[in-house]
Amino acid sequence: MADQSLGAGLVANATACLGAAVAAVLPGVVGGEVVDADGQTHAGLPWSGVSILGGDAAKVREIRTKAMSKEGLFVADMSKHAQASRSYEEYRAGLGSTDESELSYYAVSIVGPRNKVDKLVGGLPLLR
């Protein structure tokens, strides 16, 4: 889910980065290559489907906090620090010197059993 007050570019960047984070940790979430009738290969895509939901910044934080306390869920987040950093070293240093309570989350990705995820995000609209 993403903070719906962000511009389209920030949301696109956050969701792409979170997708990469999920695929790195949970490679089985991405299916294998697919071949079309002409024999051309297409890259694998997530088999579970992906919904980009929207809420305000407070809702993103609330859902992240709840998800972090649930067993069996993988949670990745994109903070304002991550978006503003020009290098991974800068990101690590910025995050390492900031209390979690002071972080602003732009987006969060939650992967796990559908019923657990639905309990957290149920009722949220698709991002527009």
Automatic annotation (TrEMBL):
InterPro entries: DUF2000 (IPR018988), Pep_tRNA_hydro_II_dom_sf (IPR023476), UCP033763 (IPR017021). It comes from the Bacteria. The lineage of its organism: Bacteria, Bacillati, Actinomycetota, Actinomycetes, Pseudonocardiales. Pfam families: DUF2000. This is DUF2000 domain-containing protein. It comes from Amycolatopsis bartoniae.
